[in-house]
Description:
Elements lengths: L4 H6 L1 H20 L4 E2 L4 E2 L2 E7 L6 H16 L5 E5 L1 H7 L4 H11 L17 E6 L2 E4 L16 E2 L6 E4 L8 E9 L3 H16 L2 H7 L3 E2 L10 E2 L1 H20 L3 E2 L5 E3 H7 L1 H5 L7 E3 L2 E5 L4 H9 L10 E10 L15 E11 L4 H18 L5 E7 L11 H18 L3 E5 L8 E7 L5 E10 L1 H5 L15 E6 L4 H12 L12 E5 L5 H13 L4 E3 L6 H10 L4 E5 L1 H6 L1 E6 L4 E6 H13 L7
The protein binds one RNA strand through strand 8, strand 9, helix 10, helix 17 and helix 18.
Amino acid sequence: MAKSKQQVQDSLLYRIRHSSAHIMAEAMLERFPEAHIAIGPPIEDGFYYDFALPRPVNDEDMAWVENRMKEIIRGGFAFTVKEVSPDEARTFFAKQPYKIELINDLVEGRVDENGAEIAAPAEKLTFWTQDTFTDLCRGPHVENTRQINPDAISVTFKPPAGAYWRGDEKREQLTRIYGTAWETPEQMQEYLHLLEEAKKRDHRILGERLGLFTISQLVGKGLPLWKPYGAILRDTLERWLRQTQIDNGYLPVVTPHIAKLDLYKTSGHYPYYKDSQYAPIKVDDDEFLLKPMNCPHHIMIYKSEMRSYRDLPLRLAEFGTVYRYEQSGELNGLTRVRGFTVDDAHLFVAPNQLLEEFKKVVSLIQNIFNSLGLTDFRARVGTRDPESDKYVGSDVLWERATAAIIQACEDLKLPYTIESGEAAFYGPKLDFMVRDVLKREWQLGTVQVDYNLPERFDIEYVAEDNTRPRPVMIHRAPFGSMERFIGILIEHFAGVFPVWLAPVQVMMVPIADRHYEYADGVAAQLRSAGVRVEVDKGKGRMGGKIREARERHIPYMLIVGDKDMEAQTVSVRMRTDEDLGALPLADFQKMIVGLIESHSLELK
RNA sequence: GCCUUUGUAGCUCAGUCGGUAGAGCACACCCUUGGUAAGGGUGAGGUCAUGGGUUCAAUUCCCAUCAUAGGCUCCA
């Protein structure tokens, strides 16, 4: 059962983390007496505190602070609370400008320390004190620092980071120190271990080691180059999805990577996302834009013919590559790039077909994720923030679209949460949030309902009664971006891909040179059955070849020597180190082809 | 874009308190023909990210740029 907010705040762990933040601030103020303190809340897995400091912090500072925190904890200081008037608070924090700002906002009834609006102006404020440190804080805290285990906290586990005051990029940047805190040292070790596991799965490192992709400075950052093994993986996924879509009534289209600027002015993308697009290219008297979205192109295909209600739903699909000038600090391996391919499709439907078609799309995406072993997902329904003016279109249309999405989730019994302000500018959306094996949540596929672009482009169809209604559009991409999705897959599988996705499925390991010919023959036969095979003719002994194939997570190693040649067998060793012994080639072939065709996650 | 970190061979890293560099892996050649997690030898490979500055002298110190990592902000 979900815990209420109050229960979470009262939990021991929450109080340990909150109190640890105060203790860190105390230690930091000893190290940097001229520091200005901002806020220090508990967060998932720990806490942080933001400071304005006279100089950058270094490892030595952090080690000192951590040690000092442990001393303070061992000191057995009580946490005490006191009510103060706004004036007392202002006097106490006279030299702490961020605290003064917080006090003023609380007293004048604007927002609390988290930026949330408060119901009424505060007449009394609370101070919490431990040892020499007092903070403006509403608590709760542990009763005594002894309730914190000094060996279950760390502030050196993560480097200091920059963070804008109140999350506003227009305001000054503070130094944020992250800490982690747990009830027992074992729990902390477990957490640190999980962080290490995540690091080992880093797709940027695995991608390099497994030869999947590379990023060249000369080509440009955020513009990944797919190497053969990565391209095989990607192509396998694309072919599978393409076929699945054809089976579900989608029609392929292909559109160029560039178009006239006016196209995106009509769609609204250009004015709206100007800052994150590559600048327009001037040629003669025209201006062109590298395509930031596929939808306008697909709309022009829709518009190229007179459409009848008989044509709907019309489902146009394309692996369309788009370019966005993402902020440089955002770029990250394959998961955030400047050029990427969307497994895009735009569905043009009659208004009364919307719900049914939307549900079909959602269940198609569910099936796709399930077949990849990504079974832990939920839906996030992104709606319009009523306060914001960044959205286009009328209220009626937004309400209709939002209602359709929620209805679909209900009908499909898909768990969902509604998040205000997460919509696209032209319509509400449903995002698939997927948890990988390390329980990290990623945003993957997205489905959006759109009444606005049909209007902007003035598209219509001829209805049964000879009227000309507008179709509704559904934008959808199960993977989202091939780059990002494969980055996540690499981490999810830790580079150990299911057989059907493995770039190399079988490595032949001939024992001596005289077995090359036999190995080549086996490889040729498997290849003709559609299996991806390599023959290791490198120098070195069998042990080395096995070691290398294991490290590349190649599902099967087929060792062939005199005995195998004589018996016309292959000795099968799997990457799990399980040995299947000598099998007739035909038996092995039957097994692996079956596993590949069924997209099995198993090796036998 | 902003704050902080880092940038030495294809990869992982050592080193130079300022006098132009070294290891392992990988690669090439030779020897070895070995039945389930690294056989041995030799060799090639670096404008020490780039551009400025300080200095008799810069890979080393300073500045800028580019790239990288951790965050913040943003994400159609």
